Amino acid sequence: MDLRFQRCELLFGKEDFAKIQKAKILILGVGGVGSYALDCLWRSGVSDITIIDYDRYDETNQNRQIGSEAVGELKTDVLKKLYPTITAINQKMDMAWVAEFDFEPYDLIIDSADTTKVKIELAKKVYKKLIMSTGSAKRFDTSKIEVASIWKSSGDALARKIRNELKKARFDRNFTVVFSPEEDRCKEKGSFVGVTGAFGLTICSEAIKKIIKG
Questions:
Q1: Burial bucket for residue 125 (CB in 10 Å: 0-12, 13-18, 19+)
Q2: For 161, which DSSP code?
Q3: What are the phi and psi torsion angles at 74 (to 5°)?
């Protein structure tokens, strides 16, 4: 066994850790939430991870995103260097992309993308495999972070909009969301790595539990 995973195997046990190592995970968006989900999964023994993002790092990303010291570079290129076993795809995610992309090979899909319409279409298509991040900006209290079905989430404007649009589409299936009902602390999109990173780590924990459960 690779010694860097020795303590993971001690915690999860050989059988469950083998499941973790065999998992195939897709992460959509690798910013303040997605980059921490990626780091957590990779350090926990998942090597078959595909990331999709279209952005380049900006100076304003440096308060919360892994790899953001590489200002001007593609996030996918930088993260591929940091996590060599992953597959990194530089791709803009829009409605057409959701319709055409093959999600079938993946055990879990982590949605930490920014576009609301994409998130809604994604939910309709892959709800059985989905873990979705809702709004993590404008907050700084990590103790408020919760995990629930989209239908039981509360206090978050993005989650509310997603619920409303899904109801209009007569979609009533369950999928997991990570959200925070903490009241907005500012009007603009201020952000704090304690919360955005904790969202990513919470998503990672949920992913590990789902992998083990099978």
A1: middle
A2: H
A3: -65, 135
Q: Tell me the helices (H) and strands (E) count for the chain, helix number first.
A: 8, 7
Provide the CATH number for the domain around residue 162.
3.40.50.720
**Look-up: residue for tokens 């993946």?**
106
Mean pLDDT of the chain: 96
In the numeric block, which tokens belong to residue 62?
A: 């440096």
pTM of the model: 0.96
- What size, in residues, is the chain? 214
Total structural domains within the chain:
1
Burial of 102 (0-12, 13-18, 19+ CB in 10 A): exposed
- pLDDT tens digits for 111-134? 999 999 999 999 999 999 999 999
- What single-letter amino acid sits at 55? D
Range of the domain at 107: 3-213
How far from each other are the two terminal CA atoms of the chain, in whole angstroms? 23
- Find where tokens 């959509």 sit: 28
